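Researcher: Going back to the complex we discussed earlier. I've cleaned up the inputs and rechecked each line, so this should be the final set. Can you rerun the prediction on the complete assembly and write out the structure?
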Amino acid sequence: MRKALFPAVLLVLLLLPALKLEGYYYRMLSTIFLWIGLASAWNLTSGFTGYIDFGSVGYFGIGNYATAILMTKAGMPFVPSIAASGILSGLVAQFIGRHTMKLRGAYFGIATLAFAEAASQIVMEFDRTFHITFFEGSHGITLPIAHEETFFYYTFLIVVSLIVLTVFFIDRNKFGYALKAIKEAEDSAELAGVNTRFYKVSVYAITAVMIGVLGGINAYWLTYISPLDVFSVIHTIHMIIMALFGGVGTVFGPVAGAVVLSLANEIIGAKLLYTYLLMLGIILLVVVIFLPRGFIGLLSLRRFKK
Amino acid sequence: MTLFIQALITGLLNGGVYAAYSSGFSLIFGVMNIVNIFHGELIMVGAFTTYWLYTLYNIDPFLTLPLSVLSAGATGYIVQRYIINRVVEAPPMISYLCTFGIHLILANLALLFWSADFRTVTTSYSGVGFSLGQLTIPIARLITFFIAVCTTFGLYLFLEKARYGKAIRAASQDKQMARLVGIDIRKVYALTFALGAAVTGLAGGLISTHFVIYPQMGLPYTIIAFCVVVLGGMGYIPGALVGGLCIGVIQSLTATYLTSGLSIAITFILLFIILVLKPRGIMGKGIVE
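Model: Rerun complete. Updated structure for the full complex:
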């Protein structure tokens, strides 16, 4: 039954546009897909290895800017642009990860947070400092408007399904076991012959590729990006809380968390941003202190007890 | 040359304040192994205490410093006592997700109550300075610098000489042994947090006298505090002074010769190099996780 659930949901979502819904619903579903993708990607590194990344939005921003610059300045088509976004994010992550992944716990968290903030500042100030026009600083970049909502609906659906499937397969093979071993006891894993450094940096780069591609789609979808929007630390906060809320380190936990919290954001966040963020802080505390395994964890625990 | 020396002086004056609030961060980390992500919010609490007392009752900012100390210290104590003590034995990941949650709560409560406006404390002596040749030294910032450096030094002396300070150091060096000799660990933790927060609140009060303050100001300060203590050595209080002065000077030089907007980017690049090359800090006395 449970195995059939994922293909069934996917099929329904694929056929949904046949109903010819209003544009609003596609936009909302696309937003939910985007967050499912981001939370799942974040969870792949941080949930599986226990290295909490506070700078994931850095790769989102890099993805956004790579696609925007390639499409507007180099005239590249959409699909190669988002692929390039992914590759660029992955390469940056390869470099950042090689150094930051040596750090344990909170050192890693703050080093990545600082990375994202620095990336944001560089994009913001680069043009003004060196007197050229490349990132366009705080003006932001406007992309061409080309497609209707269903195009993005399908793009997000396909990419996000691929991301969730990738996490699903990693969860069940040697790669995933190595990551979980790192989370449980990194030094013992190393002693047992797991090349922890290789796995950590690889998974960090894979996460960055996913987030970078999603960033690229986001840029074309929104048609206008600026450093303060796409590098906002709030995006990282969302990824963390969605994953924690649903169940960190599981495959479908972040998916559930993303659906619930994107809807909450749609309803409350648009009007009462501060109240919403305050609520997120409280949820974070409650989840961390009382439900460290998230709501999925709560469900599976209950089943286990029966 | 004058420009360079002026930038150097400005940097050192700022660096003293960095040192004061980073020493609180370093203390909390050194004793409890907690990276306090809501550290910047403690600065914000201290700064707003000064701001409101000045705006509503017209009390001089330097006279309200004890109240900034009290408000931030109380915030730190309450949070430690009722929230962080629950997770202090859990893996470090849990404790810093916790401090992250508190960061969200404090920053957004402040936004709800005080709105996102930028505010300043402008006194009669703001901007008044004396000249040394072609250099200008603002008096308020010089006083701020002295208070900040004395605070950092005082914290160091307290930890070295006072009975409670020794208990705090004992708890940070060996938790089990400290328990065996009769130190109440939870009490020491709450005290440490309150002490670290109080020093930070004092720095917040000082910051309000010459920087713009707003509810969301916290996070950049937290990042700077982290850079400062990594540079000077995590958990090593005199390191915070050295690190603070270094970062202050580097930022001031960046602002003078490049743009002020790049200061965090430069600070981060420095942090990155230090983490990779000398994780114990430039003085080699920090704690490495």
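Model: Worth noting: The mean pLDDT of chain B is 85.
Researcher: Good, that matches what I expected from the previous run.
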